[in-house]
Design brief:
The protein is 24% helix and 40% strand. By secondary structure, the chain is an alpha/beta fold.
């Protein structure tokens, strides 16, 4: 009977650990960094999200770079989304978030806001260029 209880407790602990990691918003970004080899430099950008733009609107990096974006909002809640790199983070007023990922594919990728932020929301876009 005691052995059966220990097995059940062990399973519950394992499920709890899995849930904690899967619910952690930053785990996906951490996982992306570990699964991709950083072959370049660390490129850091400070981005301001405001109605209806990202400033700067264009971010350029090289393939293999670790991209670190410190983003904050000045007016209302926004988000930053770069779907090809698994980035989708909401930023509330007064918050600063740090997003990290490895630019592991070349191309031009859209940066969008996925939180409705007013009538100009659809025009709130930017561009990530990976050379």
């Amino acid at each position: 009977m005691k052995r059966k209880n220990l097995i059940i407790m062990g399973i519950l602990v394992l499920i709890s650990v899995i849930l904690i990691f899967s619910l952690n918003k930053n785990f996906a970004n951490f996982s992306n960094i570990n699964n991709n080899v950083i072959k370049g430099e660390t490129k850091e950008f400070i981005v301001i999200a405001k109605q209806f733009e990202f400033n700067p609107g264009i971010i350029e990096v090289n393939e293999g770079d670790l991209v670190r974006i410190k983003i904050k909002t000045e007016d209302v809640s926004h988000s930053i989304s770069i779907s090809e790199f698994g980035v989708n983070e909401k930023i509330n007023i007064g918050e600063e978030k740090i997003i990290e990922f490895v630019a592991d594919k070349k191309g031009e990728f859209s940066i969008t806001c996925n939180v409705f932020c007013g009538l100009g929301h659809r025009e709130m876009t930017g561009k990530l260029i990976v050379k």
